[in-house]
Amino acid sequence: MDMAKRYKEYDEAEKEFYFYIGLLSAKYARMELLVRRMLGAFISDDDVLNAYLFEKNGISANIELIKTINIRHNYEPEILKGILSEINNIKAERNSFIHGIWNAPHKKDNDVFINCINPKMKFVQEPDGRRWSFGDPKTVRLTFIKKLVSRVDDIILSQEAFVERLKNFDLEYGISKE
Predict the structure, then answer these.
(1) In the chain, what are the domain boundaries?
(2) Cα–Cα distance between 93 and 83 in angstroms, integer?
């Protein structure tokens, strides 16, 4: 019977991988929360109301709402467009990292490699018939995961600054509240 490993049984490469994949997961969650806060800052000063209104929306729906609302307000349109573009660019990676089925990491060429399979089933038409299969597997380097952590950190900083500026701006009158 295969038992789960204890922490001390993992080698350093595995520990480093699991640390960074966990860190990335936590940062993705923060990025998604900040999308809701961005949207909420356009709607109301009531954080409870905003959380209730938008918590069940997916990140894509909230991004589209932000874009739609900002058509009216035109608040920092280029900055907002850049932030939302970065979030959209990283969203596909997020889905594979959060929902992927990861194999054990292995060392190679002074890096750590991890194979990941997309767990979503898809229907494939092949010359010899049809079949269902999992999504395409991919191999990821730990160095790539570390770069994603940095990219998400940058997005989070941009989001936090944007929310602060927006909260201190009166959208109705187009002036700063300070």
Answers:
(1) 12-100+144-172
(2) 16
